[in-house]
Amino acid sequence: MSSPNRVVPSRQRYSATTRRGLITTAEKLFTLNGYAATSLDAIVNGTKVTKGALYHHFGGKQDLFESVFDKVESRAAKRIRKALKGERDPWRKANAGLRAFLETVQEPEYRRVVMQDGPAVLGIARFREQEARSTYGLVAEIVRSVSDGSGWQLDEPMLDTFTQVFFGAMTAAGQVVSADPDPEAASARVEAAIGVVLEGLRSLVKNGVDLSAARPDSVAADESPAAS
């Protein structure tokens, strides 16, 4: 006698396959045509499912877009994380992470879904939240690696400040590259510009500058009459 439970995994697999198919089709169409010009009819026709099947998994086009956005961002984070794992030297690690990010930003899917349509569809606040969730941790890892490898005794507030500054620089870099008609050339310029900043930090390390001393209390002491 066959057990009725055996049919459940099959249905679950079919449901999961349908969901993945909708996300894959939507990613292709959003990349090619943009969010506004992509209809739900085009997505279900491309996936060869009914619109009811789409609404079984997603509340609508924006909900589906968010899943596509998450997929593209997760793929980018995985690529950058892989580049970081290949380097032990903190400075080479920073450059490897930057290069992997700039290569990712040149991909049509990332440019269109994340950089171009993401802010408008999700709203700036939600877009920043999603972006920070996927890549902020990677920037924090790079900053901590450089700090530890340089012998700086940075406290958590200073580490977080450096992370926010460099995360903002990476976000701006992505916008520059994605908006340029020649993303490859723009990427090379950005890499050179940030490379100058990194080399400047490296020179500070070689010269023995202690960034852990860059705190309000030390600055105030330096500016006080007693210090002159």
Residue stretches low in confidence (pLDDT < 50, at least 5 long) are 218-224
In CATH terms, the superfamily of the largest domain is Tetracycline Repressor, domain 2
H/I helix tally: 10
Please state the overall shape, judged from the principal axes of the Cα atoms: elongated
In the CATH scheme, the class of the largest domain would be: Mainly Alpha
Helix % is over 70%
**From the helix content, strand content and strand pairing, which structural class follows?**
mainly alpha
The number of distinct structural domains comes to 2
> What is Rg?
23 Å
What is the averaged pLDDT score?
85
Describe what this molecule looks like in 3D.
This protein has two domains: 7-59, Arc Repressor Mutant, subunit A; 72-210, Tetracycline Repressor, domain 2 (Orthogonal Bundle), CATH 1.10.357.10. Helix content is 79%, strand content 0%. The chain has helices spanning 7-33, 40-47, 51-57, 61-85, 90-105, 108-122, 124-150, 156-179, 183-206, 216-223. Helix 5 (90-105) runs antiparallel to helix 7. The termini are far apart.
